[in-house]
Task: inverse folding
Protein backbone atom coordinates (compact mmCIF):
# COMPACT_ATOMS: atom_id res chain seq x y z
CA UNK A 1 0.00 0.00 0.00
CA UNK A 2 1.36 3.40 -1.03
CA UNK A 3 0.46 6.42 1.10
CA UNK A 4 1.52 9.81 -0.22
CA UNK A 5 1.90 12.42 2.52
CA UNK A 6 2.01 15.98 1.21
CA UNK A 7 1.16 18.64 3.81
CA UNK A 8 1.78 22.36 3.73
CA UNK A 9 3.17 24.06 6.81
CA UNK A 10 0.93 24.74 9.82
CA UNK A 11 1.32 28.41 10.67
CA UNK A 12 2.90 29.03 14.10
CA UNK A 13 3.08 25.26 14.69
CA UNK A 14 5.11 23.09 12.29
CA UNK A 15 6.93 23.44 8.97
CA UNK A 16 5.77 21.14 6.20
CA UNK A 17 8.68 18.72 6.68
CA UNK A 18 7.93 18.25 10.38
CA UNK A 19 4.21 17.85 9.67
CA UNK A 20 4.96 15.15 7.08
CA UNK A 21 7.19 13.33 9.54
CA UNK A 22 4.47 13.34 12.22
CA UNK A 23 1.85 12.12 9.75
CA UNK A 24 4.13 9.33 8.55
CA UNK A 25 4.64 8.18 12.14
CA UNK A 26 0.90 7.78 12.59
CA UNK A 27 0.50 5.94 9.29
CA UNK A 28 3.23 3.45 10.22
CA UNK A 29 1.66 2.78 13.60
CA UNK A 30 -1.44 1.50 11.81
CA UNK A 31 0.34 -0.07 8.85
CA UNK A 32 4.06 -0.75 9.45
CA UNK A 33 4.51 -2.22 5.96
CA UNK A 34 3.01 0.74 4.11
CA UNK A 35 5.10 2.42 1.42
CA UNK A 36 5.02 5.93 2.89
CA UNK A 37 6.20 8.70 0.54
CA UNK A 38 6.67 12.13 2.14
CA UNK A 39 6.55 15.18 -0.09
CA UNK A 40 6.42 18.44 1.91
CA UNK A 41 4.54 21.02 -0.12
CA UNK A 42 3.92 24.74 -0.27
CA UNK A 43 1.71 27.12 -2.20
CA UNK A 44 3.95 30.16 -2.13
CA UNK A 45 4.05 30.69 1.62
CA UNK A 46 6.51 29.51 4.24
CA UNK A 47 7.93 26.09 3.47
CA UNK A 48 7.71 26.45 -0.30
CA UNK A 49 11.44 27.08 -0.57
CA UNK A 50 12.15 23.79 1.20
CA UNK A 51 10.06 21.89 -1.36
CA UNK A 52 11.75 23.69 -4.25
CA UNK A 53 15.28 23.03 -3.02
CA UNK A 54 14.54 19.35 -2.50
CA UNK A 55 13.08 18.92 -5.98
CA UNK A 56 15.61 20.92 -8.00
CA UNK A 57 18.86 20.16 -6.17
CA UNK A 58 19.50 23.88 -5.79
CA UNK A 59 22.07 25.01 -3.24
CA UNK A 60 20.76 26.52 -0.03
CA UNK A 61 22.46 29.82 0.76
CA UNK A 62 22.10 32.15 3.73
CA UNK A 63 22.14 35.94 3.85
CA UNK A 64 21.90 38.46 6.67
CA UNK A 65 18.85 40.62 5.97
CA UNK A 66 16.15 42.55 7.81
CA UNK A 67 13.04 40.84 9.13
CA UNK A 68 9.62 42.46 8.87
CA UNK A 69 10.41 44.69 11.87
CA UNK A 70 13.82 45.75 10.58
CA UNK A 71 15.86 43.45 12.82
CA UNK A 72 18.81 41.43 11.49
CA UNK A 73 18.00 37.84 10.60
CA UNK A 74 19.62 34.97 8.72
CA UNK A 75 17.43 34.08 5.74
CA UNK A 76 17.81 31.13 3.39
CA UNK A 77 17.48 31.36 -0.37
CA UNK A 78 18.24 28.92 -3.17
CA UNK A 79 20.75 29.07 -6.01
CA UNK A 80 20.81 26.77 -9.04
CA UNK A 81 24.07 27.68 -10.78
CA UNK A 82 23.53 25.70 -13.98
CA UNK A 83 20.31 27.51 -14.87
CA UNK A 84 21.29 30.74 -13.07
CA UNK A 85 17.99 30.51 -11.20
CA UNK A 86 17.44 31.92 -7.73
CA UNK A 87 14.68 30.80 -5.37
CA UNK A 88 13.53 33.47 -2.91
CA UNK A 89 10.80 32.87 -0.35
CA UNK A 90 9.30 36.06 1.06
CA UNK A 91 8.49 34.34 4.34
CA UNK A 92 12.18 33.66 4.99
CA UNK A 93 12.80 37.39 5.38
CA UNK A 94 9.41 38.97 6.08
CA UNK A 95 7.31 36.09 7.36
CA UNK A 96 4.86 35.84 10.21
CA UNK A 97 6.79 32.92 11.62
CA UNK A 98 9.75 35.22 12.30
CA UNK A 99 7.87 37.39 14.82
CA UNK A 100 5.63 36.67 17.78
CA UNK A 101 1.89 37.27 17.72
CA UNK A 102 2.35 40.13 20.18
CA UNK A 103 4.83 41.92 17.88
CA UNK A 104 2.75 41.88 14.72
CA UNK A 105 2.01 45.28 13.22
CA UNK A 106 0.59 45.53 9.72
CA UNK A 107 1.03 49.31 9.78
CA UNK A 108 4.81 49.33 10.05
CA UNK A 109 6.16 45.94 8.90
CA UNK A 110 8.38 45.95 5.81
CA UNK A 111 9.43 43.80 2.86
CA UNK A 112 12.91 45.39 2.78
CA UNK A 113 14.51 42.01 3.56
CA UNK A 114 12.95 40.47 0.46
CA UNK A 115 14.64 43.11 -1.65
CA UNK A 116 17.92 42.30 0.07
CA UNK A 117 17.53 38.63 -0.89
CA UNK A 118 16.84 39.61 -4.50
CA UNK A 119 20.03 41.69 -4.42
CA UNK A 120 21.92 38.62 -3.23
CA UNK A 121 20.51 36.71 -6.20
CA UNK A 122 21.57 39.46 -8.60
CA UNK A 123 25.06 39.48 -7.09
CA UNK A 124 25.28 35.73 -7.75
CA UNK A 125 24.48 36.33 -11.41
CA UNK A 126 20.81 35.29 -11.48
CA UNK A 127 18.92 35.75 -14.73
CA UNK A 128 15.80 33.88 -13.53
CA UNK A 129 14.07 34.42 -10.19
CA UNK A 130 11.35 32.27 -8.70
CA UNK A 131 9.79 34.40 -5.96
CA UNK A 132 7.32 32.72 -3.61
CA UNK A 133 4.78 34.85 -1.77
CA UNK A 134 2.59 34.05 1.21
CA UNK A 135 2.96 33.82 4.96
CA UNK A 136 3.98 37.47 5.13
CA UNK A 137 3.89 39.73 8.16
CA UNK A 138 3.70 42.75 5.87
CA UNK A 139 1.16 45.04 4.23
CA UNK A 140 3.40 47.54 2.48
CA UNK A 141 2.64 46.73 -1.16
CA UNK A 142 6.26 45.78 -1.72
CA UNK A 143 7.48 49.30 -0.91
CA UNK A 144 10.24 47.96 1.34
CA UNK A 145 11.44 45.64 -1.40
CA UNK A 146 11.61 48.57 -3.82
CA UNK A 147 13.71 50.60 -1.38
CA UNK A 148 16.17 47.73 -0.96
CA UNK A 149 16.47 47.52 -4.75
CA UNK A 150 17.28 51.21 -5.07
CA UNK A 151 13.97 53.01 -5.62
CA UNK A 152 13.25 56.26 -3.79
CA UNK A 153 9.94 56.77 -2.01
CA UNK A 154 9.74 60.34 -0.73
CA UNK A 155 7.22 62.52 1.10
CA UNK A 156 6.28 66.06 0.06
CA UNK A 157 9.39 67.41 1.80
CA UNK A 158 11.70 65.14 -0.15
CA UNK A 159 12.36 62.94 2.86
CA UNK A 160 12.50 59.14 2.62
CA UNK A 161 9.34 57.44 3.85
CA UNK A 162 9.63 55.31 6.99
CA UNK A 163 8.99 51.59 6.78
CA UNK A 164 5.51 50.11 6.51
CA UNK A 165 2.29 50.33 4.59
CA UNK A 166 0.81 53.18 6.63
CA UNK A 167 3.65 55.48 5.53
CA UNK A 168 2.48 55.19 1.92
CA UNK A 169 -0.34 57.61 2.67
CA UNK A 170 2.34 60.34 2.67
CA UNK A 171 4.04 59.21 -0.57
CA UNK A 172 4.59 62.18 -2.89
CA UNK A 173 7.39 60.96 -5.17
CA UNK A 174 8.00 57.48 -6.53
CA UNK A 175 11.39 57.54 -8.23
CA UNK A 176 12.16 54.31 -10.08
CA UNK A 177 15.11 55.69 -12.02
CA UNK A 178 17.53 54.47 -9.35
CA UNK A 179 16.31 50.85 -9.36
CA UNK A 180 19.07 48.28 -9.75
CA UNK A 181 19.67 48.12 -13.53
CA UNK A 182 20.32 44.37 -13.37
CA UNK A 183 16.57 43.88 -12.84
CA UNK A 184 16.01 44.62 -16.54
CA UNK A 185 17.66 41.31 -17.46
CA UNK A 186 15.95 39.29 -14.73
CA UNK A 187 13.00 37.06 -15.62
CA UNK A 188 10.70 36.73 -12.63
CA UNK A 189 8.07 34.10 -11.88
CA UNK A 190 6.00 34.69 -8.77
CA UNK A 191 4.16 31.96 -6.90
CA UNK A 192 1.04 33.30 -5.16
CA UNK A 193 -1.19 31.40 -2.77
CA UNK A 194 -4.32 33.54 -3.21
CA UNK A 195 -6.12 35.30 -6.07
CA UNK A 196 -7.13 38.46 -4.19
CA UNK A 197 -6.76 41.91 -5.76
CA UNK A 198 -4.78 44.65 -4.05
CA UNK A 199 -7.68 46.72 -2.71
CA UNK A 200 -11.24 46.58 -1.42
CA UNK A 201 -13.20 44.05 0.58
CA UNK A 202 -11.21 41.16 -0.95
CA UNK A 203 -7.95 43.09 -0.91
CA UNK A 204 -4.71 42.60 0.98
CA UNK A 205 -5.58 44.84 3.92
CA UNK A 206 -9.16 43.70 4.53
CA UNK A 207 -8.64 39.95 4.17
CA UNK A 208 -5.13 39.42 5.53
CA UNK A 209 -4.40 42.54 7.57
CA UNK A 210 -6.12 41.33 10.77
CA UNK A 211 -3.87 38.25 11.08
CA UNK A 212 -0.91 40.64 10.88
CA UNK A 213 -2.11 42.78 13.75
CA UNK A 214 -4.39 45.25 11.95
CA UNK A 215 -7.46 46.64 13.72
CA UNK A 216 -10.57 47.57 11.68
CA UNK A 217 -9.32 51.18 11.71
CA UNK A 218 -5.88 50.03 10.55
CA UNK A 219 -7.44 48.09 7.67
CA UNK A 220 -9.17 51.21 6.34
CA UNK A 221 -6.00 53.26 6.69
CA UNK A 222 -3.86 50.66 4.94
CA UNK A 223 -6.33 50.19 2.09
CA UNK A 224 -6.33 53.94 1.40
CA UNK A 225 -2.53 54.07 1.62
CA UNK A 226 -2.15 51.20 -0.85
CA UNK A 227 -4.69 52.85 -3.19
CA UNK A 228 -2.59 56.03 -3.13
CA UNK A 229 0.55 53.97 -3.83
CA UNK A 230 -1.20 52.24 -6.74
CA UNK A 231 -2.23 55.65 -8.14
CA UNK A 232 1.36 56.90 -8.20
CA UNK A 233 2.62 53.61 -9.61
CA UNK A 234 0.07 53.76 -12.44
CA UNK A 235 1.15 57.31 -13.32
CA UNK A 236 4.80 56.30 -13.30
CA UNK A 237 4.43 53.04 -15.24
CA UNK A 238 1.49 53.80 -17.50
CA UNK A 239 -0.19 50.58 -16.33
CA UNK A 240 -2.49 49.84 -13.42
CA UNK A 241 -2.19 46.38 -11.83
CA UNK A 242 -4.27 46.86 -8.66
CA UNK A 243 -7.11 44.64 -9.89
CA UNK A 244 -4.89 41.75 -10.98
CA UNK A 245 -5.73 38.37 -9.45
CA UNK A 246 -2.99 37.74 -6.90
CA UNK A 247 -2.01 41.41 -6.55
CA UNK A 248 -3.10 41.27 -2.91
CA UNK A 249 -0.86 38.32 -2.08
CA UNK A 250 1.58 38.88 0.79
CA UNK A 251 0.26 42.31 1.66
CA UNK A 252 0.44 43.59 -1.90
CA UNK A 253 3.71 41.97 -2.91
CA UNK A 254 1.92 40.36 -5.85
CA UNK A 255 1.15 43.87 -7.08
CA UNK A 256 4.75 44.99 -6.66
CA UNK A 257 6.19 41.91 -8.35
CA UNK A 258 4.02 42.43 -11.42
CA UNK A 259 4.22 46.21 -11.58
CA UNK A 260 7.90 46.75 -10.82
CA UNK A 261 9.61 43.44 -11.64
CA UNK A 262 7.45 42.46 -14.62
CA UNK A 263 6.70 39.15 -12.95
CA UNK A 264 4.33 36.48 -14.16
CA UNK A 265 1.97 35.59 -11.29
CA UNK A 266 1.15 31.91 -11.05
CA UNK A 267 -0.83 29.89 -8.50
CA UNK A 268 1.89 28.72 -6.15
CA UNK A 269 0.59 25.20 -5.67
CA UNK A 270 0.50 24.61 -9.45
CA UNK A 271 4.10 25.75 -9.76
CA UNK A 272 5.23 23.56 -6.85
CA UNK A 273 3.36 20.54 -8.22
CA UNK A 274 5.32 20.96 -11.44
CA UNK A 275 8.66 21.45 -9.69
CA UNK A 276 8.41 18.44 -7.36
CA UNK A 277 6.97 16.08 -9.98
CA UNK A 278 3.86 15.47 -7.91
CA UNK A 279 1.88 13.86 -10.73
CA UNK A 280 4.51 11.12 -10.96
CA UNK A 281 4.39 10.57 -7.20
CA UNK A 282 0.63 10.02 -7.47
CA UNK A 283 1.15 6.99 -9.70
CA UNK A 284 0.29 3.89 -7.70
CA UNK A 285 -0.81 5.85 -4.61
CA UNK A 286 -3.73 4.43 -2.64
CA UNK A 287 -4.29 7.51 -0.49
CA UNK A 288 -3.04 11.07 -0.16
CA UNK A 289 -2.92 12.85 3.19
CA UNK A 290 -2.42 16.61 3.12
CA UNK A 291 -3.27 19.59 5.28
CA UNK A 292 -2.60 23.12 6.46
CA UNK A 293 -3.47 25.38 9.36
CA UNK A 294 -7.00 26.14 8.19
CA UNK A 295 -9.27 24.73 5.51
CA UNK A 296 -12.05 27.14 4.53
CA UNK A 297 -13.74 28.69 1.54
CA UNK A 298 -10.65 30.76 0.83
CA UNK A 299 -8.67 27.56 0.31
CA UNK A 300 -10.32 27.18 -3.08
CA UNK A 301 -8.41 30.26 -4.26
CA UNK A 302 -5.14 28.35 -4.52
CA UNK A 303 -4.19 26.75 -1.21
CA UNK A 304 -2.20 23.53 -1.02
CA UNK A 305 -4.90 20.98 0.00
CA UNK A 306 -7.22 21.98 -2.83
CA UNK A 307 -4.44 22.06 -5.40
CA UNK A 308 -3.35 18.59 -4.34
CA UNK A 309 -6.94 17.34 -4.38
CA UNK A 310 -7.42 18.58 -7.93
CA UNK A 311 -4.30 16.75 -9.07
CA UNK A 312 -5.29 13.56 -7.22
CA UNK A 313 -8.86 13.68 -8.52
CA UNK A 314 -7.55 13.38 -12.07
CA UNK A 315 -6.02 10.01 -11.09
CA UNK A 316 -8.91 8.86 -8.86
CA UNK A 317 -6.80 8.89 -5.69
CA UNK A 318 -8.71 9.72 -2.48
CA UNK A 319 -7.49 12.70 -0.45
CA UNK A 320 -7.82 13.33 3.28
CA UNK A 321 -7.11 16.75 4.75
CA UNK A 322 -5.95 17.35 8.31
CA UNK A 323 -6.47 20.99 9.26
CA UNK A 324 -5.81 22.89 12.42
CA UNK A 325 -9.27 24.34 11.94
CA UNK A 326 -12.19 23.85 9.57
CA UNK A 327 -13.45 27.35 8.78
CA UNK A 328 -16.46 28.78 7.00
CA UNK A 329 -17.11 27.36 3.55
CA UNK A 330 -14.73 24.41 3.81
CA UNK A 331 -17.29 21.89 2.53
CA UNK A 332 -17.01 23.40 -0.95
CA UNK A 333 -13.66 21.60 -1.11
CA UNK A 334 -15.55 18.31 -1.61
CA UNK A 335 -16.26 19.40 -5.17
CA UNK A 336 -12.53 19.82 -5.81
CA UNK A 337 -11.63 16.22 -4.98
CA UNK A 338 -11.22 16.21 -1.20
CA UNK A 339 -12.67 12.96 0.13
CA UNK A 340 -12.75 13.89 3.83
CA UNK A 341 -11.40 16.57 6.15
CA UNK A 342 -10.75 16.57 9.89
CA UNK A 343 -9.70 19.14 12.46
CA UNK A 344 -6.70 18.15 14.57
CA UNK A 345 -8.02 18.90 18.06
CA UNK A 346 -9.27 15.85 19.95
CA UNK A 347 -11.12 17.86 22.55
CA UNK A 348 -11.52 21.37 23.99
CA UNK A 349 -8.16 23.18 24.07
CA UNK A 350 -6.83 26.70 23.72
CA UNK A 351 -4.70 27.82 20.78
CA UNK A 352 -1.38 27.55 22.60
CA UNK A 353 -2.07 23.93 23.57
CA UNK A 354 -3.19 23.06 20.06
CA UNK A 355 -0.05 24.56 18.57
CA UNK A 356 2.28 22.82 21.02
CA UNK A 357 0.61 19.43 20.45
CA UNK A 358 0.31 19.66 16.65
CA UNK A 359 2.76 16.85 15.87
CA UNK A 360 1.19 14.50 18.38
CA UNK A 361 -2.32 15.28 17.12
CA UNK A 362 -1.32 14.73 13.49
CA UNK A 363 0.20 11.35 14.24
CA UNK A 364 -2.90 10.25 16.16
CA UNK A 365 -5.30 11.38 13.42
CA UNK A 366 -3.27 9.60 10.73
CA UNK A 367 -3.20 6.38 12.73
CA UNK A 368 -7.00 6.46 13.04
CA UNK A 369 -7.45 7.32 9.35
CA UNK A 370 -5.30 4.39 8.28
CA UNK A 371 -7.02 1.95 10.64
CA UNK A 372 -10.34 2.89 9.08
CA UNK A 373 -8.95 2.89 5.54
CA UNK A 374 -7.54 -0.61 5.98
CA UNK A 375 -10.91 -1.92 7.14
CA UNK A 376 -12.96 -0.51 4.27
CA UNK A 377 -10.60 -1.25 1.37
Result:
Amino acid sequence: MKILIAPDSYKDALPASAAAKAMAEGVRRACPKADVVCCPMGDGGEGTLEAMLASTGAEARTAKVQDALGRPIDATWGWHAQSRTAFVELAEASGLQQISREERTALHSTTFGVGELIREALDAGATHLLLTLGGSATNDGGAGMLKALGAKLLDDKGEALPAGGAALENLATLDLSTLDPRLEKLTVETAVDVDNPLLGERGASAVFGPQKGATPEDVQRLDKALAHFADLAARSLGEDHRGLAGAGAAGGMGFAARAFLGAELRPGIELVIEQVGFDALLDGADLVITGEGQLDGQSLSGKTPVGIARAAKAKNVPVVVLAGRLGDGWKAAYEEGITAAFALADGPMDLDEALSRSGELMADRCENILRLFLQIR
